[in-house]
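for the record, two folds in this file. i put them one after another cuz i was lazy. first one right below, seq on top, structure tokens after. the second one comes after a little note so u can tell where it starts
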Amino acid sequence: MTTADLPSDFPGLKTLIAQRASAMPRRLAQIAIYALEHPDEIAFGTVASIAESAGVQPSTLVRFAQSLGFAGFSDLQEIFQSRLRERLPNYAERLDLLREHARDRSKTALLLDGFSEAAEKSIRDLRERLDTRQLDKIVERLAKAETLYLIGLRRSYPIATYMAYAFGQLGVRSTLIDARAGLAAEELGFAGKRDCIMAISFTPYASETVALVKAQAERGIPVVAITDSPFSPLASTANTWIEVQEGNFEGFRSMAATMALAMTLTVAVAERRDKASK
């Protein structure tokens, strides 16, 4: 790849990293995963601090950048920084300030502010990153399905449950796979190629969700996934997927962006089906 062929924006760079990661040596692949999961840290950090956080040597960051075709790490970092230039205020810094002032405030008030900031950051990131053309295609795929099978376990369960409730209210046939009685595989066995599976899972990925989705994909059942990384096992299994990066405060991840996306999908699918029936 020549210098002229190198991506000049973050979406292009993200695609390049995801394409190359599987063929990279272990340490370089480790950085690739870290870079896509922590783009703000790559943009703001020094070579030393990033290397420490990623668990590699500083020289490995330079080799990673060069493996992608860049002259050095600073050239690669510039693209991560350009993604943030128009993004004011800086939510990561605001969250840090909240933590610094914890001693001077009510802990409950601090938590409310922190979780609210994390939710705002999550939704803002979703709106900046999401390709609306891709979203329209996913809505079209879901709207054409005879039955939608919804899988979201562990922390994703509230999202799947909401979608099942909303689809029911909107007259869209769906089945919630909750795995409570150990019958998830049997329930999914009724899915056919005219149906579609909507799977939701985030790091650390629910192993049962991953196994169920893989088994159905091997049967040729269409799968749409909501997940958090190109390296997610759902991303490699699904026919198409949407990336959602949730912010966190005090180690607790927000669900605001995922819920906003779930509400968007349910209403858009119902509207598309209603329009097609007229």
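(here's the note) second protein begins now
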Amino acid sequence: MTFTKRNKAIHIDTEALSSLALVQAGLIHPVDGLMNKQTSQEVDKNKVYKDMPLPFSFILAPSGKRNFEVISSLKAGEIVDLINGERKVGELTVEETFEIDPEQRIFNIFGTNDTLHPGVKNTINRLGKMAVSGKYIVKYLPVEDNIKKVKNTIKETGAKKITAMMLAANPFNRVHERIIRQKLNHSDLVILFLRKPFNNDGLSYNIRSKALEKLIDKFLPKNKVIVVPLENTYIFAGYNELILDAIVAKNYGCSELTVGKNHGGLSVYYSDNEINTIFNECEYGNLSINIEVVEEYVYCNICKTLVSSETCPHGSHHHIKYNSNAILKLLENGIIPPTILVRKEVSSYILSHLFPNRFENVQNLYYDLFPNSGLLEDQTDESFYIELINLYQTSSLT
């Protein structure tokens, strides 16, 4: 699409464009478009839309003085261009414009207005005071390509039972792998939705994606596991994140969503003297997806393997926990994690890309330290880290 002069223009960022594309593609079904004032207020109050759980309304209220002036001037039936950067990415036929309370909108999404919350801080800067509803069409290839990838894989494999996992993989560790293997025992296909945030914190998406693909290529059945990027827009934010995850997984064709028991979005509350989670809300309506909450896994230095913290008979003082932040700190400081935490193939790839050309002459260092065939072969930082881990695991002198 190219920029035209005939219409007024609303400028949207890529995060808003991605969200509009998800809805347009039917991945947030039954949401099928932007909500008007009455519908959005009903959804925000009741947390239900068309008999389906929905944490908050779907509206378009972009920030900026120019957008405020344009939206305020729009009339019903008017066509407005949607602009991302300097490029026209869609059109919207106006149904209604209406004022919103940005503070209340933030609270509906995150359950808090505290600006120390990173989601609140990022979203409040993107949110304007005027919303517009109406039919729209947008062009956004990433979403279209993801749908094609999943549909083609399901068709090629004939998969019926399809399990979804939402991963940050920041970084991918042994517990992730254990859960994937468990799901492969009972699934025709496992779809790993790898979160791709717009405000990156930690490893870049490309590093995480490539590391995950390398592990799948070498250690998992490639015809039964695929990685699909999931752009982590504001609609997946806050304490209601898992409901949106379940809706997206269902609309991609998954029959099950697997989440960790310690997932931050698995909100726990008391009702009628019973412990409930946010997934109790998914038991009514037409969501029709099985939700499995898996136990926390740890490495027990008595059992000498990965175990469930609920079933291991040894105390927590014998347990090594898979804390992603701690593992990431090691990598960010150039330290290769022990292989009981992260496979060497994963950590070596990550380090070689976090610290490119780290060694002055890796070729000489490689041949000075490690056994070799005697033939001169090109060595990379990645192969150096793998051999270094192998050397750490030599045990006769320890």
